[in-house]
Amino acid sequence: MAGSGTAHLRDTDDVLVRVEHMVVEFPISGGTVHAVSDVSFDLVEGETLGIVGESGCGKSTTARAAIQLPKPTSGSVWFEGKDITKLSKEEMRKIRPRFQMIFQDPISSLNPRRTVNEIISEGLRVWGENDSWTLDTIDDLMESVGIDPRYGERKPHQFSGGQCQRISIARALVLDPKVIICDEPVSALDVSVQAQILNLLEDMKERYGVSLMFISHDLSVVKNISDRVMVMYMGKTCEVAGSDQLFEAPTHHYTRALMAAIPGADVAVDDQMLEGELPSAINPPAGCRFNSRCPAATDECRSVEPQLREVGEGHFVACHHPVLA
Ligand SMILES: Nc1ncnc2c1ncn2[C@@H]1O[C@H](COP(=O)(O)OP(=O)(O)OP(=O)(O)O)[C@@H](O)[C@H]1O
Ligand code: SF4
Ligand SMILES: [Mg+2]
């Protein structure tokens, strides 16, 4: 089925999150949605993992299920030495602040009735103060994300989309997280503002020592911010590599098609544009899930699921016939 396997997982001491064989299925009337089908990935301290693929390929579900929202159907998720899929609700509650999320639509993700001060400090009121931030240091946090603390009594609608995303970032940081899931955090913003928010995320990552899972349907957005990129197709992992490696030498036919679709992209792909409809997630194709749209598909692709294998140092692909340099 694009691919499975754990060959790409690392065994270093700085692995913060390790997801193995994660499956997420949603029962619906008339079948089961196979949203995430045997996906494995890891995130090391201070790293940004880009997760990229078309709408519906399971990016959000993959990241959210890693933090048990929803709990995966099967598979394990290791964080700080524990398989958090096995934690009780109370144990999971204790580590919940370590994982924060930032969403696509910054304005609607902020409570319109609360002031910015209340929005940013709410986490401290719910979860308690921590080593990094207290109710007395909210102004410092606002300053560090570029919001003038004098505007703390204003409500979200009085800010632009970019400013609201800065407020969302502050709201996430106040809980002293280890991991922030950024789910299409710049997709709703003007291009000029996108770069500012991406820069802010990078600064905050460095300054506060967080790791990011950065989700986007747009490869050109993940390119610069990500250390490593995982390309997904229909609930499967196609390719995992360092960002530079992936852009210099994309080997999976789906990755190459995504790259060919970037306007004016200076990437090493030929003319393989993405064609054909996305198959149904209720009844995904056998073998490699990309076989119905792949120009290189063979009978083997239609029956045997490719496993991730290393094609360069730290560069893994799940394809029977990858494009190798
Ligand atoms: N609660 C749910 N119930 C049923 N199906 C769901 C549910 N959540 C997600 N799905 C389905 O799971 C699949 C993966 O969805 P997901 O939202 O993770 O994709 P995505 O890559 O984040 O897409 P997008 O780029 O549009 O945000 C899709 O087929 C989606 O319709
Ligand atoms: S060559 Fe086969 S395995 Fe590789 S992407 Fe195409 S269909 Fe999938
Ligand atoms: Mg999504």
Query: What is the N-to-C order of secondary-structure elements (H for helix, E for strand)?
Result: EEEHEEHEHHHEHEHEEHHHEE
Structural class: alpha/beta
Give the amount of beta strand, in percent: 15-25%
Mean pLDDT: 94
Number of helical stretches of at least 4 residues: 10
Rg, Å, rounded = 20 Å
Shape: globular
* Strand order in the sheet with the most strands: 6-7-8-3-9-10-12-11
Bound molecules: adenosine-5'-triphosphate, iron/sulfur cluster, magnesium ion
What is the count of β-strands? 12
Give the termini distance in whole angstroms: 25 Å
Question: Explain this structure to me?
Answer:
By secondary structure, the protein is of the alpha/beta class. The chain is 28% helix and 23% strand. The chain contains ten helices and twelve strands. The strands form two sheets. An eight-stranded mixed beta sheet has the order 6-7-8-3-9-10-12-11, with helices on both faces. The chain has a four-stranded antiparallel beta sheet with strand order 2-1-4-5. A hairpin with a 2-residue loop joins strand 9 (228-233) and strand 10. Helix 3 (116-127) runs parallel beside helix 5 (161-173) and helix 5 runs parallel beside helix 6. It is globular and about 65 Å long. Bound molecules: adenosine-5'-triphosphate (ATP), iron/sulfur cluster (SF4) and magnesium ion. Magnesium ion binds next to helix 1.
Strand and helix layout:
Elements: E1 15-28, E2 31-44, E3 48-52, H1 59-66, E4 74-79, E5 82-83, H2 89-95, E6 99-102, H3 116-127, H4 138-144, H5 161-173, E7 179-183, H6 191-208, E8 211-216, H7 219-225, E9 228-233, E10 236-242, H8 243-248, H9 253-260, H10 299-303, E11 309-312, E12 315-317
Helix pairs in contact: 3-5, 5-6
Bound molecules: adenosine-5'-triphosphate (ATP), iron/sulfur cluster (SF4) and magnesium ion.
